[in-house]
Design goal:
By secondary structure, the protein is an alpha+beta fold. Belongs to the EF-Ts family.
């Protein structure tokens, strides 16, 4: 009898030691339970705890396998493009319910996007949309060029440009005008992308993409250009990852007096001039549009530089006038050397084109935009400078 009691005692002691060792090694289950949660109740309710832990172990073995979890993580990652850490956290919190986790990520995303909205976004893309008489260009910014290469970001930019083109009044007079961003952000938009399904407002679409990208995404500015006369609307995009997107945009309208003129030659020259605008960075169309204050200020600077040479006054005056002509050639479109043929300027090019088509041709308006111009980069001391 004593021998059997002793053996029972030893067996019980060994079982308790095994149990204690198991308690020190947590077993993770699908819902985050582990045998360590039973420690506090082990002394007071040993039978309940042992049976409860056994149930937890049994349930864990019957739960979805790690491969199933990885499949869900992959699916949610493909749907949302959210960081893997956030994807896994949302799935765990939602008991691995894919749809519920996607909804949870969207909720979190809006919060994350608002926290990132103060960060500098000086990278991004210009998106361009146009028809025969009008063009619209918008600048969508992000923090890094890596995000600017993302297809979701690019899809959003193109959709915003198309919306800006259709939203502006069709009866708008000829000229270039800024897009009203506040009114644009309130409009409904339906982006044709599998990860951005459903109609929403522009503002919410931007927040959703910001959450997916993990960066500040901002619609900075936009312009539309219209023409009412007979002619062509020419555009050019530099550093173009796909049609309609680029980092520098040039838009130019050429107007022809005679409405019966064939526009083939005009279109050819218009495309070259739009590229010229991107390359040469003109500020105004004609010399008359340069303000007198700017001209006089430039004259004073050039005169001071010429006087330091010690030459006679007559020579100084000639030097100043020559350098002033050079200044006009740099900033005035009509005075610039044509980039395709630098033996002529743009004014001569249009004169030759008018003779070719048999009717006067003139530039109606032009516009040049570049991503991030007027903004401080992320490594600058200031967080954000005023847009130009």
């Amino acid at each position: 009898m004593q021998f059997s009691e002793m053996m029972f005692s030893r067996g019980a002691k060994q079982s308790i030691e095994i149990l204690c060792r198991r308690l020190n090694s947590p077993i993770h289950s699908r819902y985050g339970y582990s045998t360590q949660t039973c420690r506090e109740n082990l002394v007071s309710k040993p039978n309940y705890v042992i049976s409860h832990c056994a149930l937890v172990r049994k349930y864990s073995s019957e739960a979805s396998s790690p491969s199933d979890h990885m499949s869900l993580i992959k699916k949610l990652r493909e749907r949302t493009s959210a960081p893997i850490k956030e994807v896994k956290s949302a799935l765990i919190d939602c008991n691995w319910d894919l749809d519920a986790a996607q909804k949870e990520l969207r909720k979190r995303g809006i919060v994350l996007a608002s926290k990132k909205s103060s960060r500098t976004a000086a990278e991004g893309l210009l998106a361009l949309a146009q028809n025969d008489t009008k063009a619209a260009v918008i600048e969508l910014n992000c923090e890094t060029d890596f995000v600017a290469r993302n297809e979701i970001f690019q899809c959003l930019a193109l959709s915003l440009a198309k919306l800006a083109l259709s939203a502006e009044s069709s009866g708008q007079v000829s000229g270039a005008f800024p897009v009203g961003l506040e009114s644009l952000e309130d409009l409904k938009i339906n982006i044709n992308h599998p990860k951005l399904n459903g109609e929403t407002t522009v503002q919410n679409a931007i927040k959703e993409v910001a959450a997916m990208m993990g960066e500040n995404v901002k619609l900075r500015r936009g312009f539309t250009m219209s023409m009412s006369a007979h002619g062509v609307m020419s555009t050019y995009l530099h550093t173009c990852p796909q049609p309609g997107l680029g980092r520098i945009a040039g838009i130019l309208s050429l107007e022809v007096e005679d409405e019966k003129v064939c526009l083939d030659g005009v279109q050819r020259v218009g495309a070259e001039l739009a590229m010229h605008v991107v390359a040469s960075k003109p500020l105004v169309l004609t010399k008359e549009l340069v303000s007198n204050d700017v001209v006089e200020n430039e004259r004073e600077i050039l005169k001071s530089q010429a006087e330091s040479s010690g030459r006679p006054q007559a020579a100084i005056e000639k030097m100043v006038e020559g350098r002033l002509r050079k200044y006009f050639e740099e900033v005035v479109l009509m005075e610039q050397k044509f980039i395709v043929n630098d033996t002529i300027n743009v004014k001569t090019l249009l004169s030759d084109l008018s003779k070719e088509v048999g009717s006067p041709v003139k530039i109606g308006n032009f516009l040049r935009m570049e991503v991030g111009e007027g903004l401080q980069r992320a490594d600058a001391p200031e967080a954000l400078a005023q847009a130009a």
